Amino acid sequence: MRPSVKFTTSLWLILATVFLPEVAYSQQSAAPAFRTVEDKPPPDIAENLPVKLLADADFAPFSFRSRTGSPAGLSVELAIAACERARLNCTVEVRPYGEILGALERGEADAVITGPRLDEIALSAAETTRPYFRTMGRFAVADATSLTAADGNALSGASIGAVKDTLHARWLEAYYGKSKLVPFDTLAAAGDALKTGKIDALFGDNLQVIYWVSGEGAAGCCKLLGSSFSDFDFFSRNLAFLVRPDKPDIRAALDYGLDQAQASGATEKIISTYVPLPVW
Hints:
The chain is α/β, with parallel strands linked by helices. The chain has helices at residues 9-23, 74-86, 97-105, 120-125, 167-175, 187-195, 206-214, 248-264, 266-274; strands spanning 49-56, 58-59, 63-65, 71-72, 88-95, 111-112, 127-128, 133-134, 137-142, 159-163, 180-184, 201-205, 222-229, 238-239, 242-243. α2 packs across α8 (248-264). Residues 6-29 have low confidence and may be disordered.
């Protein structure tokens, strides 16, 4: 469940309070449908069934502790929206990342909405809903660029920056061999190189690139190039809810609620609140 993108809570709170109110989805096209909505009736489950959800306390923008101490984040709001549509009485508690899977295994919660990756360890301890989000990769370029596409041919001969020793850098090595690949220690350093014209493009995690382009570091210099890239052999990971294996009714109800949230447009609205530019 835990994808490669990671923002500190303090950074996210700055973005959320300073930047997002001005531009949230003003430039956003329709959010991608990460789920195929199943045409099924609501699950046969008691109305207002109490359900306790756990989330990572420091995994913005998906989940974090707000300034008031309450749970917040894209995944938190989406979980609440799903619970409302499935008529579940859900509460969300945020905990440190290292405590989450153990708490689920001990029966201290019914489901986990962020935290552990969907690996063999997590999947041996829980069942999952169908995915609700996916990590991807994205290119950014300077506003004045002559580049118009992000495929390998279009970027042949161009210099592309990426954070060294990352899956995104390895993906470039695999598919952009005709480009000049320039390694950097951080995405901010790659961004500075793009802003000053030392490289032609940068590539990295979709959300990290979006927040850099939209933030103070870019100072309005740059824009996204093309669409997002999804590649499960490299950097793409699904995000889904982990549910206790003895709670199949709750898993079915959460899947139903997530479907209804997407079909009603609530998912798109929630994504638009936390992501200022198109995620797809």
